[in-house]
Design brief:
By secondary structure, this protein is α+β, with helices and mostly antiparallel strands. The protein has two domains: 5-157, Immunoglobulin-like (Sandwich), CATH 2.60.40; 158-218. The protein has helices at 103-108, 159-217; strands spanning 9-12, 16-20, 27-35, 41-48, 54-57, 60-63, 68-75, 88-96, 116-125, 134-136, 152-153, 155-156. Strands 2, 4, 6, 8, 9, 10 and 11 form a seven-stranded mixed sheet that branches. The radius of gyration is 28 Å and the shape is rod-shaped. GO terms for molecular function: FFAT motif binding. This is GM25016.
Length: 218
Amino acid sequence: MSDNTESKLALDPSEVLVFEGPFNRSVSRKLVIRNTSQTQRMAFKMKTTTPKLFYVRPNIGVLAPEQKVSVDIYMQPILQEQIQKRHKFLLMAAEVTGDITDMQEFWKMQNPNETWDTKIKCELVPSKQDDFRQAGGSAALSTDNKDGEVHFDAQEVSEPMAKLLKQVSMLEDEHVVLTDQIESLRDQAIGRTFFYMATIIVIILAAVAGAYYGKTHL
């Protein structure tokens, strides 16, 4: 179809999802999807090239006219062999004209020529604990899979698991802060110890020099 998703749905962020490290823990990001139509209901569905790495809540749904939804995207701790892969999302949209009893069945029955899709880039921004940066995806919009990529349905995480992931992320943030504070205190302690030792050495040298001077000149 000549139209595209962005003419039906507004995205925030609109082009790229930025995940900030460290990546040895779960990282989350929000994607806000808004139905721009004043009269038409729109169905949406999230797909990804790496379903085992990303969990999405919700990953599928229907938006009333001008309604919006905040989608939570959780990225699992990344493995070394996954660093070089291009991780991408595909957001699909379709008009809804009647009642829907089964969302999965609704999408199975959709004519590809009557659906819209857009690719969303993923960008990994390293923290000081990370030494890599991986960007993938393309801002180009398409209604087919011209580049040969395979997109899978994004797995939806349950509400209890989503809360648990958020709590774990908060605890890991606190751990990073406490670690930085401990390192700072340790550096300060080392600095004070060095100062005390230097002072003692100077005093000893001064005493030795004084004794030598007194012995040779008095």
